[in-house]
UniProtKB/TrEMBL annotation:
Keywords: NAD, Oxidoreductase. Residues 143-285 form the D-isomer specific 2-hydroxyacid dehydrogenase NAD-binding domain. The lineage of its organism: Bacteria, Candidatus Collieribacteriota. PROSITE patterns: D_2_HYDROXYACID_DH_1 (PS00065). GO terms for cellular component: cytosol. Belongs to the D-isomer specific 2-hydroxyacid dehydrogenase family. Residues 50-336 form the D-isomer specific 2-hydroxyacid dehydrogenase catalytic domain. This is D-isomer specific 2-hydroxyacid dehydrogenase NAD-binding domain-containing protein. SUPFAM superfamilies: Formate/glycerate dehydrogenase catalytic domain-like (SSF52283), NAD(P)-binding Rossmann-fold domains (SSF51735).
Amino acid sequence: MFQVKKIRKIQKMIAVLLLTWNKHMNKIVVLQPKSEFNGDLQYRLGYSGEVEYVDSVREYSVEELIHLAKKADILAFNPDRMGGIEKVSSRLQELLEGIPNLKGLALNTWRTDYINKDYLKERKIVVSNTPNYYVEAIATQAVALLLGCARRIFLADRRTQKRKYRLELGREPRSLAVGIVGLGHVGERVAELCKGLGMSVSAYNRTPKRIENVRRADIDEILRGSDVIVLCLSTNEETIGFLSKERIPRIKNGAIVINMSDKKLVNEKAMADSLKSGKIDQYAYETESTHKSPLEGIETALAFKPFGGYTREALGRNREVWVRNIEDLSRGKPTNMVSL
């Protein structure tokens, strides 16, 4: 009898401790379905707080997400649940206004240009992002686009689909002079891959940076001397419109332009004119939509929905960094913090 009473007393103490612990646990809302995380990551998230996930990978309305997240302490944010990065800026602001007690915002992207940093700073919301998980995926995508354009594979496919096939004269990698604009993690990896394929590589970077067997050049040398130009710049006030209507005419006749950055870095009207005239052979880029763009309907404007970072390996790295950021926010020791 004494043992039974003792066990019941211990059970009550444990129950009280659990209630107290739960009361002080962070409420974490994850804008990604639970099934997208493996068992270990689910366990780690559950250990970090009281977790609620969205139920699918569809696009949600602001109202739906406010209903789900209104009591959240930490919001694990995926812009795809609100229509993608290009649509999300104003909608995210509205969502955050509906979460009064939010302390941390864990982005699952490396980009941060869609968040209102002044607003977040005013509310003292700590923000983290997921840097560098995408480097190999984006760099290999750049090289795939480069080779597809050089061998005119994309154009041959388009013309074949329209029953307008003609023999396309391509270029081999070893004959190409490649100019890389921006030597961050992606740009540096693109340079390495291009060198490995025997291409001649030059690079422009705002601050001098040495890479073995890569020639440093100013932007004018890149524009005038490259068979292929690869844009690998981050998006900010200084780089928006970087490939301007003044710079585009200086590009080498018949060159290919690969944009691995934001489409806002390129003056689309000037690019469209250069493609129509044949000044630029092909322009490959990612965008959510070409609707009402000057590039819409131009055969040599190769628009792809954003999927450069979408590989099995990159997603695995992204989930790992994202969950670690959430854990660290929950512990009050944030990592990969975004400067506000």
